[in-house]
Amino acid sequence: MNIEQELNHKQYLAASSQAKHLRIVAGAGTGKTRTLTYRLAYQILCGINPKKMVAITFTNKAAKEMLTRVEALLEREQVTKTSKPLICTFHAFCYRFLRQEITAISGFDKNFQIADEENTAEIYKSIFKKMPKGDSKDYCKYITSKISSLKTEGIFPMDVTRSDIPMGALYTLDELLFVYQEYQRQLRIQNLLDFDDLLMLTVYLMKSNEQIREHWRQKYDVFLVDEFQDTNSLQYEMVKLFMKKDTSLTVVGDPDQTIYTWRGAKNEIIKDRLQEDFSDLETVVLDENYRSTQNILDVANALIQHNKNRLKKDLIAKSDESGAPVEYFRETDNNQEAYQVARRIQTLIKNGVDYNQIAVIYRSNYLSRALESQLTKFKVPYEVYGGMKFYERAEIKDAISYLRVAINPDDFSFKRILKAPSKGIGDVTLDKAMMMKEQLGEETTLFDVFLSHRDDLSLNKKSKLALDLFFSAYERFLLALQKADSGEAILTAINLYYSETGFLDYVHREDVKNSEKMSFLAASSTSKVDNVNEFLKTISDFFQSDVLSDEGTPVHPTLEEFLIQVALQSDQDALEGQKKVALMTGHVSKGLEFPYVFVTGLNQTIFPTNHAILEHNFEEERRLLYVCMTRAQKQLTLSSFGGRNFMTGDEYHPSMFLKEIPIQQKEPRALETRSPFERYHPYQGSNKPNFSNAQTFLNQHKAAPQATVDNNYHVGDRVIHASFGKGVITKINDKKLTVDFGPEYGIKVLVIGFKAFRKMREDE
Question: What pLDDT score does 178 carry?
Answer without folding.
Answer: 93
